């Protein structure tokens, strides 16, 4: 395959309880139907509240199954709970093995690897990092094997949480905040990735669109499909708008297109949950 077209969506937060979020997803679905990429990847927070509502997970799976192309999934903190952090308040709902198993029972996977257009694509479960649950160690060993198996090919890594704000040397409060992959796993992951030909790290979680390059690696933060977070709840570090990201991979190169689907609107979190 000389070219591989991939569409990244993220933070869909689907539930039967908020029709506005479903409407934004349907606008994105129509865009995907028209553009017909080779694959759609949802980088997490697929559901509104997966830890307490399997129905949210199943509703999200139902809507994705109706898309005209294949999909792959990664869990976010709203799907299986969150990982602990060394800075700030911990999550009231920590990720557990049981919550991960529930996600896998609905979506069939929480990590994956495949190759296309001479690239190796790796999907990682970032919200079990630093938890100490058995699947965390299993994933660490699995990831090392997948990176080694690329044998020098360019690698595109997908995960829910960004690795860092600007650099691996961000101040402690930025390095360990719940917004990013937490320490100490973050430092180990950055070191591991640096030993391989990782050209792209694609994430979501922040509900802001961002695109920057550090060293040889381009970091793409996909915006939320569902909603934006108002400034009084979250500082501005990117572009606050709903949307998606389209990629075109060719051997040794790739292109990125930041897109807003026709009909997609900027729903504020305050419209869903008043502050």
From TrEMBL:
InterPro entries: Calcineurin-like_PHP (IPR004843), Metallo-depent_PP-like (IPR029052), STPP_CPPED1 (IPR051918). Gene3D superfamilies: 3.60.21.10. GO terms for molecular function: hydrolase activity. SUPFAM superfamilies: Metallo-dependent phosphatases. Residues 4-208 form the Calcineurin-like phosphoesterase domain. It holds the Pfam family Metallophos. Transmembrane segments: none annotated. This is Calcineurin-like phosphoesterase. The lineage of its organism: Bacteria, Pseudomonadati, Pseudomonadota, Alphaproteobacteria, Hyphomicrobiales.
